[in-house]
Amino acid sequence: MKLPTPALLAGIAALALIGSSASAAIIVDSSSGGVNFNASNVTPYTITSSSLGSFDPTGSGKLIVALISRQGLASNTTMTYGGVAMTLAGMAYNNTNNQGLAAIYYLDNPTAVGDLVLSGTAHNSISVDLYAVSGLAAGGPVLPISTDLSPSTDPSPGVTVSLTTGSAGFVVGAIGQSGTGGTVTQTSDYYDRFTARGAIASWIDNTGSNSYFLSDNQTGEAGVMVDFAAVPEPASLAMLGVGGLLIASRRRR
Length: 253
Description:
The protein is mainly beta. The protein has one domain (about 25-235). Helix content is about 15%, strand content about 40%. The protein has helices at about 5-20, 235-250, and strands at about 25-40, 45, 60-70, 80, 85, 85-95, 100-110, 115-120, 125-135, 145-150, 160-165, 170-175, 185, 190-195, 200-205, 210-215, 220-230. β6 and β7 form a beta hairpin. α1 (about 5-20) packs antiparallel against α2. The longest helix has 19 residues, at about 235-250.
């Protein structure tokens, strides 16, 4: 039997170490949380930059927007920021009598402050949380995402969305409801929370292998939770390259 060479063993070891190596620090550079709007029957609906206070995503790697609606927004609702289309990361829509909607959108490398524009018509009110975050990888969330719906008549089951992370990242959960109030619970140490039209919460996870949940017990709710992965540290990327080169070198021999 042919034994592995030292070069091959070193390559395998280098690749194995990547899973335990550190990620870049996750920093919320700017945020605008718990902003309420009466969006009754207006299409498209514009949330001006001035109404978001001092929020500025410029220079951050990722803009994340959590949206909750108290009735009316449809499942094909799209969003732009500063005229640039945002990508839908995850959505839950309770289509019983146009009840709650919860959605999370993202935009990589935002370059300017701008207005937030929704394509859909909301018959009632909406709320948004915005986060400008550094240290996150480009692209969409880690799969799978978590979604849940509650009946339109019985609030006792409510909605719970939950995730367990496999690596460092930024977790965002949102629950849109048909009414107001409700009892909100969530994993402690959240970064931000808002409950006037449902619930939004987020967590900075610098280690991974942690569990998060967000729950509310109103009727006609929809909930979603996503996890955006952190950027690996340069040392991890270098180790990946070294491991790959060593293995490739072994195969050429």
